[in-house]
Amino acid sequence: MKPNNIWRIYFGIIVMSVFVIVLSISVFINTVSAERYTLADLISFIVTILSMLLALLAYHISVKTYFSIDAVNAISRMDGNVMENQHYRTGIYSLLRRFNATSREGTCRQIVEYFEGLFQKEKITSGAKLADSIQEMIDLIVLLSFILNRKDRVDIDGVNDEIARRISSVISDVERRVADFEEMSEGSSVLIRESVKLLKAVFSYQCYWVGEQSDRIGLLLDVRGPMLKNVISRTIYYNYLGLWYMSKAILVLRRHFESETEAFDPFSIDAVSKLREMDGCRNKELAVIYLEEALRNFDCAAEPIPDELMWNGFLQYNIARAQYLSGLLTVEASSNWHQSIQNAINYRSKLVMMLDDICGSDNRSLLQRAFQTELEQAKLMELRLKIATGSVKPVAVNLGELHDDEFHRLSIIYNDIQSHRIELTERHNFDMDEVTVKVKVS
C-alpha cells in the first residue's frame, strides 16, 4: 500500500461510518416515534456508535503503525549501496570539471560547499543515500592535500583555518546523521561507521596530524579496514596506513641522526652515506620493520585498482620512496624503486594529458596545476634519488628554472639537486653545458 493512496481508504471508511451513524439515528428516531423506545434500545444505539468510532480509531492506529514500520524499513535499507560495490571507481574527471576554479580560495569554496551540500537533511532520505554521500566525500578527501597546508610545514593562513573548520563541521554533521541511522538499524550501520572513521583519520592526516602528531593519525589503527568492501575505500585505507608506517620509519631515522642535524631528510642526497653506514642498532631494525609494513600496505592498496590513474600515481610514488629507503637500510640493496617511480611518472603523465584534453589546457584550474606539479615532483624525485645513489652525475643535469611553487612540493627537491650541481662544479670544474638528463620544471 502506497502512502499517497491512504486518503482514499480514509475517505471510504468515513463515508461508511457516516452512513451507519445516519442509519442508526434514523432507526432510533423511528423507534422513539413509534413509542417502542426502551432503555435497551438506547444502550444498543450508544454501543453501536461507540463500536464504530473505536473500530475507526483502531484502523487509524494500525495504518499509522504500518506506514511507520514501512518508513523505517525504507530509510534503513542498504540494498545495492556503493559501500558494498567492489568494482566502484571515482569519477575524477567529472569532479575536476566541477571544481574548475583557478585560485586556491575559489577551489576551497567549491569543494567545501559541495561537501556541505551532500549532507543536507532533505537529501539523506535513506541509509543507501547516506552511504553514497559519505563515499563521495571519501573519494574527494585526497584533494584536500592540494588546498590545505599542513601546520608542521608552512605558516597557516586564515583561509586554511576557515576551510579546516568548515570541513570539521561537515564531519560532525555526518556523525550526527550516522547516529540517527544507527537508532533505526544497528546491523546495517557497520560499514557506514567504519567509513566515517576512515574519513576522520584521512582528514586528520591531510590537515595537520603527521610526524610527531602520530597520536591523531593513529586513528587509522582504529579503522577495521578489511571490513571495507568498497574498493576505493580499501585503497585509501591501505595507502594512508602505509604512509603512516613510512612516516614512523622516517621519524625513527630522524631521531637517530638528530645529534648531527635538526632537519634530517632521508631522501636528500647527503643522507645516503649516513643510511648505508647505520649499524645494526634498534633504530635501524625498527625503521626496517615500519618500511616493510608500509610496503605491504601499499601493495594491498594497489592490487585491486590496476586501471585507476590517479590513485596509482600516488601509490607508485609512495612505493618507490619506501623501496628506496628499505634498500639503503638492508643488506640486499633493492633497485625496484627505479621501476616504481617510473611507473608513477607514467601514470601521472597519462592523467595530466587526459585532464588537459577533457578540461582544457588554456586556463588550467588549480587542481589541474596540482596534478601537473605532482608529475614534476615525481620526475625531480627520480632525478634526486638517482644522483644520491650515483646513477647520474648532478653536473650532467639541466634543471632549468623553478617557478612559483604554489603547492610547496618542488622547492626542497629542486634546491637539493641544484646545490650539489653547484658544489661539484666548483670542486671539479665540470662542464655545465654537458647534459645527459633533462627535467622540465614549469
Task: Describe what you observe in this structure.
With 442 residues, the protein is mainly alpha-helical. Helix content is 67%, strand content 1%. It is built from 16 helices and two strands. The protein has helices spanning 6-33, 39-76, 92-98, 104-118, 127-140, 144-147, 158-184, 190-207, 214-217, 231-256, 271-276, 282-302, 309-329, 336-359, 366-388, 411-428; strands at residues 397-398, 437-438. It has a two-stranded parallel ribbon. Helix 16 links the parallel strand 1 (397-398) and strand 2. Helix 8 (190-207) packs parallel to helix 10 (231-256), helix 12 (282-302) runs antiparallel to helix 13 and helix 15 (366-388) runs parallel beside helix 16 (411-428).
Q: Rounded to an integer, what's the Rg over CA atoms?
A: 33 Å
Strand proportion: under 5%
Uncertain regions spanning at least 5 consecutive residues: 152-156, 209-214, 429-437
Total beta strands: 2
Order of helices and strands: HHHHHHHHHHHHHHHEHE
Oligomer: single chain
Q: Figure out the total of helices.
A: 16
Detail the topology: elements first, then pairings:
Layout lengths: L5 H28 L5 H38 L15 H7 L5 H15 L8 H14 L3 H4 L10 H27 L5 H18 L6 H4 L13 H26 L14 H6 L5 H21 L6 H21 L6 H24 L6 H23 L8 E2 L12 H18 L8 E2 L4
Parallel strand pairs: 1-2
